[in-house]
Write a structure and sequence with these properties.
alpha/beta; 31 helices; 930 residues
Length: 930
């Protein structure tokens, strides 16, 4: 048997049945044999023996009395056991199962019963996937050319940036492969099947479609199976559906000639791989194994390559944009200088320098440092970042999908109300329920623990001290109730206290308590009872009824037949209550531009109650998984856009909704902690899990919260927006400045008789400018930027390049005019090159403060002290270089003294015009950023 901890399941692959798998097996052919009848009688005897042993140990029952009661029960058990002595002629099993030969044939046909059979990605394959990024290839090519032309310094910087980006990507992605491994490790035990007419224990991987398997309490379902025989079978499917309470399963009652429908999680005749048996026993035929099971569907999803996130697409779009600029400009510069000046070697070196100048070689470093700093800050706020790229996506989320349980609710059952038959609060109902739950000797479920917790809070007002237990009638899933028989120590009065499903207790009750009097239950009272329970159910409560009965205090043996003619005492209403912080957290989330959507496997009634409690609008109705299954692509896209609460979803429907939202242009976060959430976690732009989640969910997630709280999540989102802002600052600055400089180079290359700037000067200029931006990850972020989700818009970056780039070139040309006509540098190439080198370096360094904010720099928005110091340091070094011992090495000379005045005026006018143009661009095209 598969004695193992419960696993998950979830489906994508077709769970079709092989033809005629169990046509020869009919549930009505199965008879209860002598062995099974004896086993059931023995179980009843064992239950009674357990109760009497507990009472005797507590000195509440004399050992002699226990012996007398058990001797009478043993007589009944012996009578059943006598049937086992009778000879039987060739016992034939009701279903012989497969032969060994047929099983081997089907194993070859369908493959081993393993959820995941994916091919592992090798280190070489992963490395190649990271290296073939366009920006990485470009950096490696430019680095190689720089090295080949003896420019070792440039080569080291450029290649170093590329290697850093590749290493980071390889390390991050290698961690994700363990998710599917976690699933495989959860299912590796054995199963009991019928082979060659007898029961046989076989490895789980050898189970094939058509095998007959036997299930008992504690077993894990080894494959997707259809029940042939079931007795009191209850299965825990919480990892699939999110519902904590077990589901009752039974043999299919459809006509034999009915066409089989595709298996559903709600099908009572189907049990799914990885779920576990809570109680009862069954025989079932295997209909799907391995990757064809629901479990296999989840595992297959986790093995798939993760889809590109919004961050990935943004970086790639920017890289391709810069490549397009480079493809046009670099050949133009090369041929223009080659033809006009005749020195093709010098033209090649100059074109290479232009290419390096256009390349955002600091982008991998700035992105990495920004993300790493964000991860460090988020870790202090109880947010652990597994994949650095997810931080930016975190800030870009505009739709957050989440499960209900544990996110909006406390993830624990509490006793919310204890009511009399009219629906009014009554403490005596709690007292009797407390005695029932406290004194029973069986396994206490979540409802019992909630009753005990509520009773303990009342202290001495509710106590079991005045009662002693005589006997109990244990719970079973057929009756759906349990009883204890207690005697009041002082009064000598005995009562049977019965607690169970409302309809079951109603059926055993003939009277009820009204205003302290016991009255018969007539049609009027019955309608009142049904109304109270119905209203509680509609409010999302799980309702249990309580009944009492006076019994003989001298009796010691009670059974199911004594649960009759009860006096209905009242009701207990249970709920997984909402968190106190949930409503406020949701409100803040909406204020920050994030639309919350609930995706739960729980039922619509309970979901509606919780949404009402936390003031989450769900529109005209809650969409169920059954409705989702009937929608086409267009209708589904409209439904997930306009509705915000979805209930009774299976794992693949959660993933489908996430993918549909992403296809509609949303940046989607998904928060979940179960195996049933794993596909959606991987499909989202950002998968968010919690530290207490199952391993598979944590491995599938990008972000892990150390506290399952929407407040913690909100803090992480704000940090993500800061990181995104600082990354885009570099891109805006670098792209517009580089474009402007190279546009100036194009013009200067045409009319100047010499190079406008030496290749070494371009590289030094570029390196110093890049250094000035190294502090961008520390920069302050304007408060109003954090109010909305922020995401990549390549058109916005293009506008910065196309409008602010030419502004830079305008003042470059003004500098050309000053150097040629004021300082007469037509015949002094070194002076011209020095003048433009200093102006170019200072202008693009100081313009950082203009582009870093949409506000007025230095007045409405100030940079961080670190960014201010780095930009100031670079400006001072740039001014010092022409006077330094390095000047001759870089081809620089001392400019005339009046150059500095004109330079200051030029840079001031440039910053003023850049501020005007930037403000116009923001107001014209970016009024509603995000």
């Amino acid at each position: 048997m598969t004695k193992h901890r419960p696993g998950p399941t979830a489906p994508d692959a077709e769970a079709g049945k092989p033809d005629s798998l169990h046509d020869h097996i009919k549930p009505h052919d199965i008879q209860l044999g002598p062995e099974e009848e004896f086993t059931q009688s023995l179980a009843h005897f064992a239950q009674k023996a357990h109760v009497f042993a507990a009472l005797a140990a507590q000195r509440k029952l004399k050992p002699r009395d226990a012996y007398e009661h058990l001797r009478s029960l043993w007589g009944q058990l012996s009578a059943v056991g006598e049937a086992l002595q009778q000879p039987t002629a060739e016992p034939k099993p009701p279903f012989p199962g497969l032969s060994s030969g047929e099983a081997r044939k089907r194993l070859r046909q369908y493959g081993p019963n393993q959820a995941v059979l994916e091919k592992r990605v090798t280190f070489t394959g992963r490395l190649w996937a990271a290296v073939k990024n366009p920006l990485v290839i470009l950096l490696l090519v430019l680095g190689s050319i720089s090295y080949a032309t003896d420019d070792v310094r440039s080569a080291v910087v450029i290649v170093g940036m590329a290697v850093m980006g590749v290493a980071l990507k390889v390390i991050q992605e290698s961690k994700a492969d363990t998710a599917a491994d976690q699933l495989k490790r959860m299912v590796h035990t054995t199963a009991t099947v019928m082979r060659d007419g007898g029961r046989k224990e076989i490895p789980l991987r050898d189970v094939v479609p058509g095998d007959v398997v036997f299930l008992a309490a504690g077993d894990m379902i080894p494959a997707d199976v259809q029940l042939l025989k079931a007795k009191d079978l209850h299965v825990n499917q919480s990892m699939l559906t999110g519902e904590a309470l077990p589901l009752e399963k039974s043999v299919n009652t459809r006509p034999a000639d009915a066409s089989p429908a595709k298996p559903s999680l709600d099908d009572p005749s189907m049990c799914f791989m990885g779920t576990n048996v809570v109680s009862g026993s069954a025989a079932a035929v295997v209909v799907s194994t391995g990757a064809r099971t629901y479990f296999g569907g989840i595992a297959a999803k986790l093995s798939e390559q993760r889809t590109e996130t919004d961050f990935d697409k943004g970086i790639k779009s920017f890289t391709m944009l810069m490549l397009r600029f480079m493809v046009f400009m670099v050949p133009f510069v090369f041929f223009a200088n080659g033809f006009l000046k005749g020195n093709w070697a010098e033209a090649f070196t100059f074109a290479l320098a232009v290419a390096v100048g256009l390349t955002p070689e600091m982008l991998p470093m700035v992105v990495t440092v920004c993300l790493s700093k964000g991860a460090l800050v988020m870790s202090r706020q109880k947010v652990i970042v597994k994949k650095l790229d997810a931080i930016q996506n975190f800030g870009a989320i505009d739709v957050l999908c989440m499960d209900k349980t544990g996110t909006l609710t406390q993830d624990r059952i509490i006793l919310e109300k204890y009511l009399d038959v009219r629906g009014e609060e009554d403490d005596s109902v709690l007292e009797m329920a407390y005695v029932n739950s406290k004194l029973q000797t069986g396994l206490r479920n979540a409802l019992d623990l909630a009753v005990i917790a509520s009773g303990d809070k009342l202290g001495d007002a509710v106590s079991t001290e005045r009662f002693e237990m005589i006997d109990e009638v244990p719970f079973d899933f057929m009756r759906r109730r349990m009883s204890v028989v207690v005697r009041e120590k002082d009064a000598g009065k005995a009562q049977l206290i019965c607690k169970g499903a409302a309809e079951e207790v109603f059926g055993c009750s003939s009277r009820c308590v009204v205003n302290g009097e016991i009255v018969p239950i007539d049609d009027s009272f019955r309608k009142t009872m049904e109304r109270v329970v119905r209203e509680l159910n509609e409010d999302g409560f799980r309702v249990v009824a309580l009944g009492l009965k006076d019994v003989d205090p001298d009796r010691r043996d009670y059974g199911v037949k004594d649960e009759s003619d009860l006096v209905l005492r009242g009701y207990l209403a249970f709920l997984d209550p909402p968190k106190e912080s949930a409503a406020q957290a949701l409100r803040v989330m909406v204020e920050h531009g994030i639309t919350p959507k609930i995706l739960t496997g729980d039922n619509a009634v309970i979901t509606r109650k919780i949404c009402h409690e936390v003031h989450l609008e769900y529109g005209d109705h809650i969409v169920t998984g059954e409705e989702i299954g009937l929608l086409g692509p267009e209708a589904l896209a409209e439904t997930v856009e306009t509705h915000h609460v979805f209930a009774k979803l299976d794992p693949m429907q959660k993933e489908l909704i996430v993918r549909t939202l992403r296809a509609s242009g949303h940046v989607v976060g998904f928060m979940g902690d179960g195996i049933n959430d794993a596909p959606a976690l991987k499909a989202a732009d950002v998968g968010i899990s919690v530290d207490s989640a199952v391993d598979v969910a944590k491995e599938s997630a990008d972000i892990i919260l150390l506290e399952k709280s929407l407040n913690v999540l909100g803090n992480g989102v704000m940090e993500g927006r800061k990181v995104f802002n600082n990354i885009t600052k570099y891109i805006r600055m670098g792209a517009s400045s580089n474009f402007g400089n190279m546009f100036s180079v194009l013009g200067a290359s045409i009319f100047l008789p010499f190079l406008p700037m030496l290749p070494i000067q371009i590289l030094i200029n570029n390196l110093m400018y890049d250094f000035s931006q190294a502090a961008i990850p520390t920069d302050n972020v304007d408060t109003d930027f954090l109010g909305k989700p922020r995401r990549w818009r390549i058109d916005d970056i293009k506008r910065y390049i196309l409008f602010l780039g030419p502004v830079s070139s305008l003042f470059d040309y003004l500098t050309f005019f000053i150097m040629l006509h004021v300082f007469h540098a037509w015949d002094n190439a070194a002076l011209f090159q020095t003048g433009w080198f200093i102006e170019s370096l200072l202008s693009q360094t100081l313009i950082v403060h203009v582009i870093r904010t949409d506000k007025i720099p230095f007045i409405q928005s100030r940079s961080s002290i670190y960014l201010a110091l780095t930009t100031l340091a670079i400006c001072l070094v740039g001014v010092w270089l022409p006077f330094s011992p390095l000047a001759s090495s870089f081809g620089l000379v001392r400019p005339p003294s009046n150059y500095w005045l004109l330079l200051g005026l030029t840079i001031f006018c440039y910053m003023c015009l850049a501020q005007i143009v930037k403000t116009w661009v923001v107001r014209r095209w970016l009024p509603g950023q995000g």
